[in-house]
Amino acid sequence: MAETTASQSRRNTKIGYVVSTKMAKTIVVETTRQKSHPLYRRVISRSKKFYAHDENNTARVGDVVLIEETRPMSRLKRWRLKQVVQPAKLVPAAEEQQAS
Question: What span, in angstroms and rounded, lies between the C-alpha atoms of 87 and 59?
């Protein structure tokens, strides 16, 4: 029983899209969630941005990533990149421009 609890982390994780990689070793991840409006009962989307530590600069804009809660690394950074779930797909027009 101790082995199963040791392998499972109690830290909070989130999945979202990378929207910015302009800082050194930092990515901005946007997560969206849907919730019901308290009065009108319509489903509305809420999004929030998280700053995450990316040690090797592996994530690119548009990637779907898994981030994990960690100790505070700076004023805004409290998350770290755990894995890139799905890399971003290039648009065919962008591939042609890179080839030429």
Answer: 8
Q: Which domains does the chain have, with CATH numbers?
A: 8-87 (2.40.50.140)
Q: What is the pLDDT of residues 24-62, one digit of tens each?
A: 999 999 999 999 999 999 999 999 999 999 999 999 999
Structure-block tokens of residue 38: 């308290």
Burial class from Cβ neighbours inside 10 Å (0-12, 13-18, 19+) for residue 34 reads exposed
Q: What is the pTM of this model?
A: 0.79
Residue burial 6-15, b: 16+ Cβ < 10 Å; e: rest: eeeeeeeebe
Looking at the predicted structure, is the pLDDT value of residue 92 above 80? no
Q: Which residue has the tokens 């989130």?
A: 14
Which 3 state secondary structure label does DSSP give 63?
coil
Residues 63 and 84: beta-carbon distance below 8 Å: yes
